[in-house]
Design goal:
By secondary structure, the chain is of the alpha+beta class. About 20% of the residues lie in helices and about 25% in strands. The chain has three helices and 13 strands, in the order αααβββββββββββββ.
Length: about 300
């Protein structure tokens, strides 16, 4: 490639020089006048000389021929040495060379940073039924209402009394489950542990008359309050309510289901109950309710306190 470029540059330079000399204006001859003797010598025949001619036009012609010959020689040399090299040239008038340079391709790398996904862990909320003392079970013509305005769940289990009756859940019950056996040899749903809001009062689950109420010792160790109501819908039976705090009724009081407050909230027990394993943490306290037929004798379950 360099050879071709050199040839082209040399040719253009020479052509520019010849063109410049041809365009140069002729100046008036300032030499002294020619004498007759000089004219006579000029007219005499001269020997041919191979030196530089005195005539300017002839010299320019010879110079052009020399340039052309030199250009051809260089052209042949370049063709023999680099016949495959491309040359971009265009000679117009006094020869103009145009070289096209391809731009170097530029690679742009765009780095995209993908933000890490945000993981949000949603914990289930405590499911609470707020049904304004709706019924949760029936037995022997008696309808039992939830004893609190806010109930999380109802856990049925075996009662410790042989006369306890089997409770039948109704559709308006809060979340309900029948818990595992306690090996008491009684019906599976003879009692209900109702998990309630610890900040709310406890109301009568049935309409009837209070037979007895007060404080007792649970498991021979823990103080607890209770109330026993004889229901109007089944006289002679007893509806027992345990694990209530600060009982508000006495024997002989009349109570109405869902209307009469019988205690200032549930009793928080100092140990874990079976229903606590199924309720939401931290566990709410529960109220124990069972319906007993006292005509059925209760077998002794062990030494009393």
């Amino acid at each position: 490639m360099w050879c071709w470029q050199g040839v082209v540059r040399a040719a253009i330079t020479t052509l520019h020089r010849v063109a410049a000399e041809a365009a140069r204006p002729k100046t008036r001859d300032s030499r002294p006048p020619v004498t007759r003797e000089q004219t006579a010598r000029a007219a005499a025949p001269k020997s041919v000389s191979l030196g530089r001619p005195t005539n300017q036009a002839a010299w320019r012609t010879i110079s052009g021929v020399r340039v052309a010959l030199a250009f051809l020689v260089l052209l042949a040399a370049c063709s023999a040495g680099a016949a495959a090299d491309p040359v971009i040239a265009d000679v117009v008038g006094l020869a103009i060379t145009t070289t096209t340079t391809s731009p170097t391709p530029t690679t742009t790398t765009t780095s995209t940073t993908t933000p890490l996904p945000t993981t949000t862990t949603t914990f289930p909320r405590r499911s609470v039924a707020q049904q304004a003392f709706a019924p949760f079970a029936t037995v022997g013509g008696i309808t039992l209402l939830h004893p609190s305005e806010r109930v999380e769940m109802v856990g049925f289990h075996e009662s410790g009394h042989d006369g306890a009756q089997q409770l039948l859940p109704v559709t308006s019950i809060a979340t309900a489950v029948t818990m595992e056996t306690r090996e008491r040899d009684t019906v599976s749903r003879g009692a209900a542990d109702i998990v309630v809001d610890p900040t709310l009062d406890i109301y009568a689950p049935v309409t009837g008359t209070v037979k007895r109420a007060g404080t007792y010792v649970l498991y021979c160790e823990y103080s607890d309050d209770f109330a026993v109501i004889e229901p109007d819908d089944h006289p002679g039976w007893e509806v027992k309510i345990l694990h209530i705090n600060q009982v508000q009724v006495r024997a002989g009081d009349r109570v109405e289901a869902g209307l009469t407050m019988i205690a200032i909230g549930p009793t928080p027990l100092p140990f874990e109950s079976q229903v606590d394993e199924l309720s939401w943490e931290p566990s709410w306290p529960h109220v124990h309710i069972e319906v007993v037929d006292p005509s059925i004798p209760d077998r002794p379950s062990g030494p009393g306190c």
